[in-house]
Fold:
Amino acid sequence: MDEIQQAVDQFRTLLQEQRSRMLRLEQGQEAVDYSKKDHIVIGVAPGDGIGPIISRQVRRVLQQLLAQPLSQGKLELRDITGLTIENRTALGVSVPEDTLAQIKACDVLLKGPTATPKGGTMESANVTLRRELDLYANVRPVTVPEEGIDWVFFRENTEGEYVLGSRGVALDGMAVDFKVTTDAGTRRLCRAAFDYARRNGKNRVSIVTKANLMKKTDGKFSSVCAAVAAEYPQIHTDEWYIDIMAANLVNPAIRSGFQVFVLPNLYGDIITDLAAQIQGGVGTAGSANIGNRYAMFEAIHGTAPRMLEEGLGDYANPSSLLKAAVMLLTHIGCSAEAARLDAALTAAAAALPMTGDASGATCEAFADAVLANL
Ligand code: IPM
Ligand code: MG
Structure:
């Protein structure tokens, strides 16, 4: 068959699938009310690379912090197996079926970074989990108190450039990828951001797109966000293109004026690494992936293979996964424990420099310091 015809057939299938997904989204789903649950299961998946090293320490901290609710059976920490690159490669899938079933039997998941092979067709486990668990809001806070920076990024997490990122078409000598934006998908993310702003006394939300270039998808993102913004007249809304927003975030004269950001998937991926670096590095930033039924909390960074190659794994910084744990506890309604962990983490970070090598503290020593400050 002619390769263009083949590509058109593939595109038709993709459109049909995406339309079904959109129709499902339009039906909506009620969010879990954790205050009504008497038993909440927290899955812990260590991941790859430095993942098991930082996860072990974070689990140790949680075990002590949550000793009471754990012993009362109000909370449960449950180890998830099989989410390793060895197992995933052997089975040829990004998330094995059995592992996904274990995760779905939990309420929330604390996940270490997972490796994704370069090239090939295996999707990133993050992308699979975000889609399978419908975790549509990627919430990434960045704070630099001494500079007055207190940002929260709401990155769309289930569509945009990612939803068909492994399913583009390659013709002889050329390749085409697809980006998908839906009304329902954009609306629920944008509402999450404005609701967060309203609940937390924020009065400014900044929408970030490249609607001058990506006219259909970002054009839709922009107009849907404008409609949502109109429902929150007490909050000031502005819109920026991603390129100038990148410049704004490294401009100390204006950056502390921003509060809450709403962005499509890929721009959010890129700009939150930049923002985390302003805070002190990607090792310091946590990330929450929120859906109505499930939620997953993780470090913003990857598996750091170079640290392991250089024998420096023990110096990995667990801060980002500890921050993710703070967000997890807040999400399930354990706000007192979340505040205790946050304060202990801040105290440990002030006392122990983490440099990623022997000039700084080890991951274990850092966790000891957190425990001592609880
Ligand atoms: C992130 C990561 C992931 C992403 C990768 C691992 C697929 O960079 O969570 O930001 O691009 O979303
Ligand atoms: Mg990223």
User: Anything to note?
Assistant: Residues 3-27 form the longest helix (25 residues). The pocket of magnesium ion (ligand 2) is lined by residues 269, 273 (CB under 6 Å).
